[in-house]
């Protein structure tokens, strides 16, 4: 009896060490900068971009007989990535509460039930937004001292996500009614409306359509203005002021413009 109990305890200890070793390995692959980890992260990034391309093309591919095969294959990849990232997280409960993770779980549900939840499929493009929450995207820029491009790129991606989310919503809600006969019509209407061009050849019917158009115009022009500000304003560096905490300064700033504290911003060489 004692030998059996000891054997069971040894098996449990072995499984525990194996589990801890697997989590440690995944943590290194997702977060370290070793050559093997970098290759793994680049592979994950390429797969993510391919998945996003599928999401953008989904409305056009739905009639293809291979659509469900692609859909479930991507669901399996996304589920595997979620499980691996969860295992790599130090605090799983805290990781599960992150907005990017919640969005990914929702996307996975729409992939597992494509027929029932196809009308919510346009929200899958939010995967592009969750991808920009990951260090996998920004780490290569920072390693090449191009981190100051992060905000303009983020603003451009936010605008792109908005365009495709709204296009998907317009296509889902209004296709077959009046002017919206296909996905391209929905995309055309979205871009024409958010840029306030307003050609008027495609419009959404009824009061609800007018309200949707108003929301597109207000949010769309705001995102455009934000992107223009980041592209054309003078470049700034991130360096928290030791006294007031202001983090954005001109590269050649000597004093903090908020409190006047003497700064010591490192130059590009790190001096």
From TrEMBL:
Q: Which UniProt keywords apply?
A: Ion channel, Ion transport, Membrane, Transmembrane, Transmembrane helix, Transport
- What's the superkingdom here? Bacteria
Give me any GO biological process, just one. action potential
InterPro entries from the xrefs? Answer: K_chnl_dom, K_chnl_volt-dep_EAG/ELK/ERG, VG_K_chnl
Please tell me whether the keyword Magnesium is annotated for this protein. Answer: no
Start and end residues of each Potassium channel domain: 160-231
SUPFAM superfamilies from the entry? Voltage-gated potassium channels (SSF81324)
**Which compartments is it annotated to reside in?**
Membrane
Q: What is its main location?
A: membrane
Q: Which Pfam families match?
A: Ion_trans_2
Return the protein name: Potassium channel family protein
Q: Which organism is it from?
A: Devosia oryzisoli
